[in-house]
Amino acid sequence: MTELRYEAPESLDGAVTLLSGGGGGKILAGGTDVLVQLHTEMIEPDVIVDIKNIPELKRLSEDGGAWTVGAAVSGMNIIDNDAFQTAWPGVCEGVALIGSIQVKGRASIGGNLCNASPAADSVPAIIAAGAIANIVGPGGSREEPVENIVTGPGQTSLAQGELIVSFSFPAKQANSGDCYLRLTPRTEMDIAIVGAGVNLTLDDDGTCIAARISIGAVAPTPLLVEDAANALIGTKVNDAALDAMVEAVRAACNPISDKRGTREYRIKTAGVIARRAALKALERAQAN
Amino acid sequence: MATILEDSKYDPQRDLKVVGSNPVKHDGLDKVTGRAKFGADYFLPGMLYGRTLRSPHPHAIIKSIDTSAAEAVPGVKSIVTRDDFPEIDPGTVAGEMTRTAMAREKALFDGHPVAAVAATTDAAAKQALKLIKVDYEILPHVIDPVDAMQPDAPILHDYIRTKGLDEPSDKPTNITERLITEMGDVEKGFAEADVIVERDFDSKPMHQGYIEPQGCVAEYSDDGQVELWCCTQAPFVYRDRLSAILKMESAKINVQQSELGGGFGGKTGFYPEPVAILLSKKAKRPVKMVLSRNEVFRGTGPVSATNYTIKMGVTKDGKITAAQGHLVFQTGIFTGSMYFNGPNAMFTRYNFENIHIESFEVVSNRPKVNSFRAPCVPQIVFGVEGVIDELARKIGMDPIDLRLKNAATEGYTTVYGETLGPIGFVETLQAAKDSEHYKSLVKDGEGRGVAAGFWFNRGGETSTSMNIAPDGSVTIITGTADVAGSRISIAMMAAEELGIDVDKVRITMADTNSLGFNRVTAGSRTTYSVGMTVVDNARQCIDQFVKRAAEIWDVPEDAVVYENGECRPAGANVGNFEPLTIADITKQTTMSHGAVTASASMNVTGAGPGFGLHIVDAKVDEETGRTDITRYTVVEDAGKAIHPLQVEGQYQGGAVQGIGWALNEEYVYGEDGRLQNASFLDYRMPVTSDVPMIDTVIVEVPNPRHPFGLRGVGEVPVVPTMAAIGNAIGNAIGVRPQSLPMSPPKLLEIIDNRNS
Questions:
Q1: Does B627 touch chain A (CB under 8 A)?
Q2: Which among A35, B207, B379, B646 is least buried, having the fewest CB atoms inside 10 angstroms?
């Protein structure tokens, strides 16, 4: 019988040391994925490294409009923070869709990202927001845009011994707005068939000067679709621009057909959901 | 003894004090506080944990099973395989039950048990499973029932010959039976019709959706007796079937039912129980087995999938002249789907004279299907009520008016030969028509649908006993499982008959050694049938109270009357006696006469059929194909609602389960014949936010065969649900879906085809 060791380091160094040694270390934050995987024997790690006792991972702070969100901060702590909610409503929409209230009481965006599901709900939203992952590891610390973290289903670009400490969100620009929407057959407690995060910035005339569009569940990783963003930049986000954005989104999709939805259905609805998210982000940008 | 079979003494003028009120359920507090014990909640000293090894192949010969490495795992106390089960011929009822519990010659579906381990810890049992070596010879498989009917399909059992063919064949086949159900002359009926509609439909298997997985503890004693604690709808049926497949006398198997965390038909047949018994026998220790959700989905039976065609004709003035069906039912790997309910019930509620239905039951490489509310009926009514709606539209008639015009009434003889007594279908349709929902305007962008349904309702073998404590309080022992809160309704009927407060009555769910045989809780039989025997118990006790009061007063028995829980002198000339309560009598006479007790055992008949009509408003997102149910009303005849909130709960629960079946629920199999969505995450039952408030209208057209007039209410609420939702969606998007579930991808395809 395999013995499972549980460790709860209180410092980043302690965590890095534990994760660097041997081969089978698994990080536990909220545990909403890891415990399920353990129970169903999808994973059989030698050591579970609980990172919730490391202060840097539980910090949620703002400095001059820029937010730092610890990788293990629970989803409920994020969406219950009124100031963060005001700054990044789209990110909060993504976080709010991670399971039930009970699950979100434990689940974190660090975990949601590093579980590396193509359908993770918070990920397109934080990619669209332009968040940076702050990483520590045996070789010191580094920064990486969130879109570079997931490399395939269940796979990340983190090296052995590395963990994400926090996410840095840039200060929100004037006249900007974000939104995340997803499509599920059920209203809740479901996995996205498609998800779309959109973050737009307008100039004083209402012309789009910056855009980031990320889609989930339509490829092996969440995608940052630059062609879709470019279709909106320089426009008033009118119907023609939105049509071009939808085309670019659909062209970027490369989904599988599986129990959760067919390839054809996912490609078709990815455009629908991206358009709806863009319109909502536009409405927010115009109101800001 | 069986007084009420002769005369229910149903009295429409009776002044009811308890029946019709909504007391707190006696088992309710334990359930909301977590104190109630469910199937997984039993622990015995020295208990082992059992785990099952399941076939990953849908169809494979089991050449050999090597358990030697598993036996060497520390903590492993016993391992069972097919070799531990008595040999029973395949193709027999018991032979198929034993092969459901444990594969013998072949593994017949993904998830079929092939071995089981009992160990001192769950982890040791799981580790041992990985070390069991099974040598399979993989065979071609077939999942879809229509594929299984083709001449080149793999033959799953060499012993099946189709029953009911005009010309019997000796060729092995996957079609177990063909059944013709008919009355009148459909060709003549179609000739009289002005409009004829014929449509093809299909449905997928659906999980009953019970939250509690199957779980049990079995203890096999050294002297060959079995104690079994388990969650079941059928403790006595489990006992007798275990007796058949383990070749033990029934009296040596005592089944104690736990509280039930949902069954809906899915716990009418056993899965881990015989395995746990044999593991315990070999280990000489109690063994607990609780299925995982994955095992529940892969290894237990859902409802039948169907493929079928419905054809109906109507005259311009709304007389439906002919109704025809060609039905295929998927039964899973073994026969026993109860598919005959489909043809018997699909048109019953209308006064049709010309009916012809040809039905087939087909095996395929999936677990044998199990019951679900109104087995094999709702999925066919989905098509029937869709065609009726189309007929109404084509002749320009209101859909409820068309149903009223063709509604069956007392005296109609059904296609299965029953002549209906007093029924409430017309009253139900009228109540629906008069409802605020039906009269309200349909909102912009939404569609409204209605559909009607019927269920026979059942009675059957029922035993109960009643014991009066010396202080006058009342205990009742029942053996028909309480799956939905029937206990409170039964206590209420006893209290009403005895003229006492319902809080003075408590019910114990018996183990199988404590009572005579009780049939499975199924078919909406329980509150009706147990109500009958309990009222009989109460009447027997009242007779004894009267006798004892007469003795106390030294007057003739006919000088004593029993009213409102008291014995009183029948008139002033009897004498000046203070009334005697039950407690007065029992306190004075228990020591001298023994306790007042009664028992009753009957095969209850006379269950009155139930009818319902559902009204649904739905909105479809035309860009994604997602449906929102915006308003829902269930109108149904309860005969008499004993506990109206419980009845309302049945109506709402049926509608909610039907919403899931209608919109998203389906088993998804891969090309490899393996189930892909064996979890509640990917098997999409509705969550709370998927369903609106389900409004209810309780119609009460009494069934005079019952002392309080009740009809069963467990099945009808799901029967018309998918049909009503389908009709609402059809009216919203202009095309009536013909395939269940009406999932977003399917509806988007319909919408795209409509637009192009």
A1: no
A2: A35
Find the length of chain A.
288
Phi, psi torsion values for A246, nearest 5 degrees: -60, -45
DSSP letters for B133-190? EEEEEE-----SHHHHTSTTSPPS-TT---BT-SS---S--SEEEEEEEEES-HHHHH
Quick one: pLDDT band at residue A4, thresholds 50, 70, 90? confident
Of B294, B677, B686, the CB nearest to A186: B686
Q: How confident is the model at residue A2 (pLDDT cuts 50, 70, 90)?
A: low
Same-domain check for residues B576 and B467: yes
Which tokens hold the place of A268? 């078709």
A234 and A132 Cβ atoms separated by less than 8 Å = no
Q: How far is CA B557 from the centre of its chain?
A: 45
pLDDT at A23: 65
Mean pLDDT of chain B: 97
Contact (CB<8Å) A190/B684: yes
Domain CATH number, residue B31: 3.30.365.10
B684 to chain A, closest Cα gap in Å: 7
Residue B533 host element (H or E): helix B526-553
Quote the CA–CA distance of A4 and A24 in Å, as a whole number. Answer: 10
Q: What is the pLDDT of residues B237-273, one digit of tens each?
A: 999 999 999 999 999 999 999 999 999 999 999 999 9
Q: Are A225 and A248 in contact (CB under 8 A)?
A: yes
Across the beta sheet with A5-7, the strand order is A5-7, A47-50, A25-28
Phi, psi of B176 (to 5 degrees): -80, -35
HSE-up (13 A, CA, CB side) for residue B348: 31
State which amino acid sits at residue A131. Answer: A
Q: pTM for this one?
A: 0.96
The tens digit of pLDDT for each residue in B633-692 reads: 999 999 999 999 999 999 999 999 999 999 999 999 999 999 999 999 999 999 999 999
Task: Tell me which H or E stretch contains B714.
Answer: none
Mean pLDDT of B406-410: 98
**Is there a contact between A185 and B684 if contact means CB atoms under 8 Å apart?**
yes
Q: What is the 3-state secondary structure (H, E, C) of A179-237?
A: EEEEECCCCCCCCCCEEEEEEEEECCCCCEEEEEEEEECCCCCCEECHHHHHHHCCCCC
Residues B496 and B434 occupy one common structural domain: no
Same domain membership, residue B503 and residue B571? yes
Containing domain of residue B523, as a range?
3-36+460-604
Facing A265 at nearest CB: one of B664, B668, B745: B745
- Sign, CA dihedral A212-A215-A220-A221, equals positive
Strand B226-230, strand B253-257: pairing: parallel
Chain B residues touching A191 at Cβ < 8 A: 681-682
Which of A259, A260, A276, A279 to mutate to probe the B interface, most B CBs <10 Å? A259
Q: Do A188 and B689 touch (CB under 8 A)?
A: yes
pLDDT of residue B314: 98
Tokens of B45: 């000293």
Question: Residue B43 and residue B219: Cα distance in Å, rounded?
Answer: 11
Domains and CATH numbers, chain A: 5-50 (3.30.43.10), 55-169 (3.30.465.10), 176-287 (3.30.390.50)
